[in-house]
């Protein structure tokens, strides 16, 4: 039994609600007469209290909640502080309004957990039989469902297995696996032991993966069956112990986990996980995120998505790479936080993500939110504009509460197409260094490219020009970003995240160019480009053309020219010296291209097939 009284959420344990009346203070006791007289005074003088509330801000409801508590020591309650949504600099925003309309003033249950394993334990106790995780396969639908209690039991069994393998608190353990049930269980088990999971990108070349292990100072490597061969190569090069997921067996148990997080590792605010940047500018940089940072992100997401998560049987579908912050924070840890369903693709190694696959998953799983990247929405819109599957796409996507996207800008016409079919979009912006989104757009807005910071965060610009004027365009600087990593791990060379002597929570440099846009009576932010030479794809991934230019220049006598404005870098024109080119065979050209490809992750291929044009 749960009751909301003003700003206080009361929860009566099952079977004890009927006993509250029998646990009143003894008649005639001092506590009885004190509470009785005050209670009667408040009821009789309710009109007076309301008038007082308007003048001196006297609020009787929290006291009534405390009075109810004094009547039953078995009643548990949690205060939910109402945060004044600080108005971001130059941003006009109703301080009590969520970006999801209709959610203003709604009080929701707020987890008290301070670590992610403690959050799982809390949900397993609060919603033991509610569905948490569903495994879905193309053509077969949902193949397995796990409740919060079952998932917590599996995590507990995995903790015992990892202990037996010698994993200890604060030890860094690399994980090389796609997003599977085993991966999610072991990720939480590592955290519960106080160890630090390091999420390796399975899309990077072997040499880069080795550099990741070294940068994060891993002593163990946990690998799935699919990456067994790569893992064995890695342990030959790095001084790490290999643990293979295939050697671990666990079944969904009923047991509760031991006290996690802060009780097991002895650190006040431990590191929860280490992510890596894309590696577009250099070797991927290791980014540590603490439990408190990721949970702070979850509170922000919960505020902005409060309407979507309140629906019965709410859940999300994503299927993005598990080492990405969108998949980790927005579609796993947040699901734990909000007590909603998350989805896992069965055998992801043999089921590449396509638009048809995502729409099929949404049809079978019935989530409230599809969390994805712009190219997926572009493909959906292309089908809606006259494809053979337009009707089915429209029906499935129209049943979603909304489609959330991040990573790159969406073409303007996509918002119009989606709106015509009753599909609502919401953009957000985050970074690996932020561990999740910190800017959100308005749900279903005509402009799906405009964002505002979450309540409590503000912004300013670092000017691109030497000007004393207040800029309205420049590198975005965030203030109050509590989730921002303070620095990359020692040994990772990267851009400065803040000024000398500053905390990133006070001032975080995003490295992205934004501009202010006036729209619908408010000031919004629009992402323009990176502040460097990176090319941003509609998948949200990035390519650095500079190493490519260097190789081509040395091997083929290249002369490069960038066409267009520096922000962004839209087109790279390559000119090859005609005299030197005469001496080059086609095989030499292709070997050079293969060398360029070897410098990039698998999605950054220069050419798979090519046409060469000769100009006059």
UniProtKB/TrEMBL annotation:
AMP-dependent synthetase/ligase domain residues are 120-482
Question: What PROSITE patterns does this protein map onto?
Answer: AMP_BINDING (PS00455)
Q: Keyword Flavoprotein on this protein?
A: no
Q: Which InterPro entries match?
A: AMP-binding_CS, AMP-dep_synth/lig_dom, ANL_N_sf
Q: One GO molecular function term?
A: medium-chain fatty acid-CoA ligase activity
Gene3D superfamilies named among the record's database cross-references: N-terminal domain of ligase-like
What superkingdom does the record give? Eukaryota
The GO annotation for biological process reads: fatty acid metabolic process
Say if the entry is tagged with keyword Ligase.
Answer: yes
Report keywords, A-Z. Answer: Ligase
Q: Which PANTHER family match?
A: ACYL-COA SYNTHETASE (PTHR43201), ACYL-COA SYNTHETASE FAMILY MEMBER 3 (PTHR43201:SF8)
Q: Which family does it belong to?
A: Belongs to the ATP-dependent AMP-binding enzyme family.
Full protein name: 2-succinylbenzoate--CoA ligase
Please name the source species.
Answer: Symbiodinium microadriaticum
- Gene name on record? menE
